[in-house]
Design brief:
Layout lengths: L16 E4 L6 H19 L5 E6 L5 H13 L4 E7 L2 H10 L4 E5 L8 E8 L2 E2 L3 H12 L8 E4 L3 H10 L10 E5 L6 H10 L3 E5 L21 H10 L3 E5 L6 E5 L4 E2 L1 H15 L4 E5 L4 H9 L3 E5 L3 H11 L3 E3 L5 E3 L9 H15 L3 H6 L5 E2 L3 E4 L2 H18 L3 E2 L4 E5 L2 E7 L5 E8 L2 H16 L8
Parallel strand pairs: 2-3, 2-4, 3-7, 8-9, 8-10, 13-14, 13-15
Antiparallel strand pairs: 1-5, 4-5, 5-6, 10-11, 11-12, 15-16, 17-22, 18-22, 19-20, 20-21, 21-22
Length: 464
């Protein structure tokens, strides 16, 4: 039997493979991942020599990781099609457009510079959950195909950028003034090419790809990472600003007043434009999204669907329900309308400009028109992995006995006093994730107190 390879158990996550380089993740791991992923692809696609698109982000460790990954892929008899450095959605685009069987991206996403990892698709579908665990088992058992594979290079940057520009759909954005912030992440070069090809006025920040992230951390869901963009919008009197995470699959935005437009608010604005073309369509959002979003989608004639958090889970549900648009609070926005159904922040950015232009209003006015509710940020409560799911299950049973109205599609989301609180077990960390929303501060305080009291009975404390 071929020699097996044992991964650090912490790197095999629910939606990807991810670790700290030099501590929990090494080039040897990358090679074993290449072997297992290529073998799995061959078996799923019923091919002895599949083709696999390979991309990488701009982290300092990514060239070494990609080289080892490619070596592993080739050792199975498969061909690695190297598409170079760029955002994760560019790799997804390559996997969709090139004649390949699968795609794998070397990326640490929005995590610190010392981290890296892998995001994968086979046959256009995300690899997650049990399939990732299978990769771990295959590596441990040395269950790899063998052969003399090869490699090719295919530069898709120009074609990908043209596809992004086409998202305008003829909308006139020539009068818009837009700020852009790549945060030195992998979207930088494509952002430069895209803004050169788009009408309008464009001001760019931190477009140079730099894996040390010298200006700010590339995670637009954290308000402090948007300060530079907000200052640019104010200084240059721009109409809006757009930011990307480290690998370009999550979007952040601010309006002319510098207000952050959160993921669910973006989805409401984008939803209006999509529903004008697809009346009655299903629009999906994760359980952390505001009730205002679900109400707005219904008001616009769409079918709002609350679903599980996790980009892989959302993609699968989109395909099942034929939804043209979906999104998460984390800034993952998924378009199947005129696109492939994967999360692409650059594409979502152009669709946002299109939605603003077609509305005849500014992004500020569109934001002002949305209902204003009071909500907490995500509250992350430390909880051991071996207890977090059981606690959520026990609370759900308690609420059932009380006859409470709640949704349990992903954790517990209970309606109470005109608001709601959410508690779910994280799929990636030893934490419980909570959030609450209410029409006013008094109700919000009551919701947080209710959740705090319930958790305390299970030995879990947090500062509400």
């Amino acid at each position: 039997m071929p020699k097996g390879h044992q991964f650090n158990a912490s790197i095999l996550r629910e939606y990807d493979i991810r670790g700290i380089v030099g501590e929990t993740l090494s080039a040897a791991d990358a090679e074993a991942i290449g072997k297992a992923f290529a073998t799995k692809t061959a078996r799923m696609r019923n091919k002895t020599a599949p083709k696999i698109a390979v991309g990488r982000d701009g982290r300092m460790s990514s060239p070494e990781m990609e080289a080892a990954l490619v070596a592993g892929i080739k050792s199975t008899g498969a061909t690695a099609v190297r598409v170079g450095t760029g955002p994760t959605p560019m790799l997804y685009y390559a996997a969709a457009e090139l004649r390949v069987d699968a795609g794998i991206m070397v990326t640490g996403s929005h995590n610190p510079p010392t981290h890296n990892g892998f995001k994968m698709v086979i046959g256009g579908k995300p690899v997650y959950g049990e399939m990732i665990r299978d990769i771990g088992t295959m590596a441990k058992e040395g269950d790899f195909a063998t052969g003399a594979g090869g490699e090719e290079t295919n530069d898709v940057r120009e074609a990908y950028t043209k596809k992004l520009v086409s998202a305008l759909g003829g909308a006139d954005i020539s009068k818009l003034k837009i700020g852009w912030d790549a945060g030195n992440g992998a979207a930088g070069e494509i952002m430069v090419a895209l803004t050169k090809a788009l009408p309008g006025t464009h001001k760019l920040l931190f477009e140079k790809i730099d894996g040390t992230f010298p200006n700010h951390h590339p995670d637009p869901t954290e308000p402090e990472n948007l300060h530079d963009l907000q200052e640019l919008v104010a200084k240059e009197k721009l109409d809006l600003g757009i930011a990307f995470d480290g690998d370009g699959d999550r979007i952040g935005a601010v309006d002319a007043k510098g207000r952050i437009i959160w993921g669910d608010q973006l989805l409401a604005i984008l939803g209006r434009d999509v529903l004008s073309k697809h009346p009655g369509a299903t629009i999906i959002a994760d359980v952390k999204a505001s009730q205002a979003l679900f109400d707005e989608i219904a008001k616009m004639g769409g079918k709002p669907l609350m679903w599980k958090t996790g980009h892989s889970l959302i993609k699968v549900k989109m395909a099942e329900t034929k939804s043209p648009l979906a999104g998460e609070m984390s800034g993952h926005i998924f378009f199947a309308d005129e696109y492939y159904g994967f999360d692409d922040a650059l594409y979502a950015a152009v669709r946002l400009l299109r939605a603003v232009a077609r509305s005849g209003k500014s992004l500020t006015e569109l934001r002002d028109a949305l209902p204003t509710l009071i909500n907490t940020p995500e509250i992350r409560i430390p909880c051991p992995d071996d207890k977090k799911f059981a606690i959520v299950s026990d609370l759900a049973n308690e609420l059932k006995k009380e006859g409470a109205e709640f949704n349990d599609v992903d954790g517990i989301r209970i309606k109470k006093d005109g608001g709601w609180w959410l508690l779910r077990a994280s799929n990636t960390q030893a934490v419980l994730v909570a959030r609450a929303e209410a029409p006013n501060e008094k109700v919000l305080a009551g919701l947080k107190a209710d959740l705090k009291q319930r958790l305390s009975r299970h030995g879990v404390a947090f500062a509400a």
